[in-house]
Amino acid sequence: MILLDPTAHPVIGHRGNRAFAPENTLESLTEAVALGADAVEFDVQLSRDGVLLLMHDLTIDRTTSGTGPVASHTFASLRTHDAGARFTADHGRTFPWRNRGVVIPSFDEVVEALPRTLPMIVELKTPAASAALHAAIVRHGLQQRVIVAGFQPASTKPLRGQGFALGASTPDVARLLLPAVLRRPMVAPWYQALCIPPTHHGIPLPIGAFTRTARQVDVVTHIWTVNDPLKALRLWRQGVQGIITDDPAAILVARSRTAFV
User: Fold this and answer.
1) Among 244, 28, 44, which Cα is nearest to 142's?
2) Mean pLDDT of 212-240
3) In Å, what is the CA distance from 2 to each residue of 39, 98, 139, 150, 222?
4) For residue 256, which of 46, 17, 35, 1 has the smallest C-alpha distance?
5) pLDDT at residue 177, rounded to an integer
6) Which of 32, 92, 165, 258 could disulfide-pair with 17, CB 3.0 to 4.6 Å?
7) Of residues 56 and 176, which shows the higher confidence score?
8) In angstroms, what is the C-alpha Rg of the chain?
9) Interval 9-39: pLDDT, tens
């Protein structure tokens, strides 16, 4: 899988083609694929009635016409809200996806709509969704094309040793900081990928050190969210594998013009 290939430089659509379409929707994800993204990244959690669905926030207020916690709605209720209502690419002057029938998709719908070989990074927003995601991965046979990540250790701990790749949690990344900076050898971890930002609370992370240390134990590094092509090129030169971006078209163009990729 390209997402685990240490020699690859995949461009990964962050929640799809998020700069130009409503995040975590079929429309956004299929746009990213059409543009040529090597993989997609999206977030999952559960509705009140246990349906695995795509949503980043724990509430639907920011991205839909509705309000309230995701977990307080049934899936049928969530589908009544316009998932394109609040999308704007011009700071609120226009809302081009409003009233176009965009809905919150289920995980099953997304897998069935995307190409059967497309790799994906799936982020668990709550530990409550871990078992449902595990079952869905097995049901769809996704083990060889998925990385499951989650900030909370409780999200991915139940999934260890289940036959698919996992991303490090936030505490795991924090524990890696000192060995990386001091160039100390790293004991082979339980995870296969670092999916991390270039900064944390405004403080730059030592991406080169992280990448160098991770490579020694066959762990790849994917960085989010990178929309500046020059920044993406700098990160690739530091040894990063994947760029997770809201604007896959721009990053793909930059990669195509770079000799080292």
Assistant:
1) 44
2) 93
3) 8, 35, 22, 20, 12
4) 35
5) 85
6) 32
7) 56
8) 18
9) 999 999 999 999 999 999 999 999 999 999 9
**Confidence at 204, pLDDT banded by 50, 70, 90:** confident
- What is the identity of the amino acid at 60? I
Alpha carbon separation from 243 to 82, 189, 219 (Å, rounded): 29, 22, 15
Please provide the size of the chain in residues.
261
- Global pTM reads 0.93
Reported as type and span, the H/E element at residue 122 is strand 120-124
CA angle at 123 for the pair 192 and 135, rounded to the nearest 5° = 85
- CA 179 to chain centroid, in Å, comes to 26
How far is 59 from 40, CA to CA, in rounded Å? 22
> Contact 60/81 with Cβ under 8 angstroms?
yes
Nearest in space to 167 (alpha carbons), one of 60, 244, 79: 244
* Residue at token pair 């020694």: 216
* Whole-number Å distance between alpha carbons of 226 and 244: 6
Residue range 115-161, pLDDT digits in tens: 999 999 999 999 999 999 999 999 999 999 999 999 999 999 999 99
